[in-house]
Amino acid sequence: MEWSPPPPIFPPLDLTNTLDAIAMQPSSTTSSVIDSASITNNSTSATSISTTPERTEEISEDGKMPDNKSLEAEVEEETETVEEGNKEEEEEEEEGEGSGKGDDPGDTNESDGESEQTRDTRILRDRARLQQNTPITPFTKKSITTAGVTTIVRKLRSSIKAPSSAPASRAADKTRRQSKRLSIIATGKLDTTTPAFSRGKRSHDVMTAGSKSANAKLQGNTSARSAADGTPLRSSKRARKHFSYNEDDDDESSATRDTSEALSTDSQTKQKKRKIWLNQGLYLGQGQDLDVRKRPGGKTKKRGKAGADRPAVLPLPMFTGLGVMDTTASCGHGLRATRSFAPRQIVVEYTGEIITQEESERRMIEDYKDNNNYYLMLFHQNMILDATRGSVARFVNHSCDPNCRMEKWLVDGKPRMALFAGDEGIEAGDELTYDYNFNWFTGVSQQACHCGAENCRGALGKRADGLQKKPEQSAKGKGKGKDKTRKKGVNGKGGKLVEAKKPTRGRPRKLVAQVQKSVIITPKRKHKRKPPPSPVTSSSPGSEDSLDPSSPSSPSSETSDHPTEASPSKKNALSLSEAARRRRTHDRAGRPRVTKTYKVNKTIRGGKGISHKSVTSKKAVSALKKKTYEKVLTTTTTTTTTTTVKTKSPSLSSSSSSPSLTSKSAGTVTTRATRRGLATPAAVENEVSSKLLEHAITTVLSATTGIDGLPADDSIVIVPALNTIQVAS
Ligand SMILES: C[S@@+](CC[C@H](N)C(=O)[O-])C[C@H]1O[C@@H](n2cnc3c(N)ncnc32)[C@H](O)[C@@H]1O
């Protein structure tokens, strides 16, 4: 790039200064100065000469100024004389202005008298200097002529334009300056005693808040150098500035390079332009002596390299402070908002590694076996998002009453996970929390929850057994602030949580899903076998009054315990009943059957206080279903006008909602079982109900009318849709 000259900085008449400028300034500058001088040369010379006759005469008289003195010296003398005179006049004017005597001509004369001695001294000094240092010696012995000034100036210009002198002098000057700086660095004459406030606010704050160890680490390099040299260093910022200056100057002279080589120790610790110390500074205040750039081997981490080069320690969250850590002492680190967020506004994306379930299991077993904090989340299509090395969102803690929610979005067709503000928004200073119930994924045993919310479920995410502790205080009524998107998942294989289904309305889907995938059953107690029921001897079947209230086989009892003697007119029915009873209570080989009653867990049917036993394998579940089906079909269900048959199966555990079959001589038999196909427990239930119903009706009719099988007339109306049979009285 071409160098553009600055405007002339010297007065046109000051050739002495011009000569000085030759050594200092680029040639073009000097040229312009000389040009100015030459343009005004005639008048200048005339002025100079006319204003300094006395001085010239005096010098001549003293013999101190030879006649053939150099033109340059002459010119310089003249110009300096003028300059001196001007300066003195200016000073006098200033003094005069100050004292009110500025207009007194006598002052000027007095001043002239005083300046003569000074002028003589200066002339002598300048002459000596010119003889020694002037680069224009060819002109020194030329005679003084006014017209020669122009020639001299022209020659001066040509000599100044010579390419060798100016750049060399510039480089030398630059080298001098750089060398001076480098020597300061080399000798360690920087000042670390600079007060903290002069380091800049950020640095000062960081240093103040930081731990002493980290503080020492931050200043490690400079301190070490300082200690080695025994001289204090300035702040690292200044030192780095010098180094960076050194790096940037590619055109530095060999002298500077030599100096740099002499600083070989420093060049090893050459600072990169990255503000590395800032990284450390950000983690100050965390109370850990941690260099996040260091790998276990001690080498500095290379950028963009993944895999085996991962640091052994995780960087701590950048935006947390002691406040968060204090308040969530039992939850580890957390995040606190430093600004407010509108309802449903995105807060931060949840990023990390996307791995397979197998890999996540491997990591849980091997890599994270000693961890207390887990960052795994079911992401998409059974892939796991491991945020152990992910965004800062991984530090968001769980709360059963959260102010955020984690949502999965498809962005450009790709799944992304992000934390959004809840329906009430977030105030600056709030701790960010969301409900891990969304799709928390760990293979570890359940972690206790310390969120402190009123409706705390007591555990993080879903309980390992797939059951959620029912909140003591219903979330109902709290309305806002609740995570409306909370999704109930189901417990999957091996105690791990599987992806949560989209929330469904109503109960059936949830029920079916749970029954199918996570049947939790517990044998309530062994059913005490009771004596087989006897045929009914109701005096007036079909009437409720015929029920024997004293009999244990009341409508509320499961079976009729009190057999009564059969009437001869009902022999067919009795034999049938006996045979049926026999079939139900004994297997084909004649061995007595064992009957069990199961009660299903409350989460399925809302029962209370039932102990659980998990049956998670599909095989066990299907075996159980089959067994239950068989059991129901073979259960003793001697149905009379006073008999109630109550069936219980894993899916029909709740007494309130389980279908009960109450057959009365002149009543209504109703079941709410819904046919869902033979594979479902509901289908089993329906099938059982139908068979029981059929059997009951047959039994009743046989007992009352002596007719086997269903009647062919309209006395019984079957309403299939409702599974309701109305028996006409
Ligand atoms: C995604 S991390 C959250 C950040 C974590 N607190 C930390 O310091 O790195 C999840 C872990 O935090 C802890 N945690 C989060 N919320 C919690 C809570 N409400 N109660 C107890 N521990 C909690 C658990 O150890 C959990 O495994």
Report on this model:
The chain has helices spanning 15-24, 27-39, 41-51, 53-62, 71-99, 105-133, 148-161, 165-187, 201-209, 212-218, 220-229, 236-248, 254-262, 264-268, 276-283, 322-327, 357-367, 508-517, 571-585, 602-605, 618-634, 681-705, and strands at residues 335-336, 346-349, 353-355, 376-380, 383-386, 397-398, 404-411, 414-421, 431-434, 521-526, 596-600, 644-646, 660-662, 668-669, 716-719, 724-727. The N and C termini lie far apart (116 Å). α3 (41-51) packs across α5. The chain has 22 helices and 16 strands. With 729 residues, it is mainly α. Strands 1-9-6 form a 3-stranded mixed beta sheet, with no helix packed on it. Strands 2-8-7 form a 3-stranded antiparallel beta sheet, with no helix packed on it. The longest helix is centred in the first third of the chain and has 29 residues, at 71-99. S-adenosylmethionine is lined by residues 330-334, 372-375, 394-395, 397-399, 447, 449-451, 460. Residues 54-72, 116-129, 464-475 have a biased composition (Basic and acidic residues). Residues 73-97, 105-115 have a biased composition (Acidic residues). Its main location: nucleus. Residues 320-437 form the SET domain. Residues 295-305, 477-490, 581-596 have a biased composition (Basic residues).
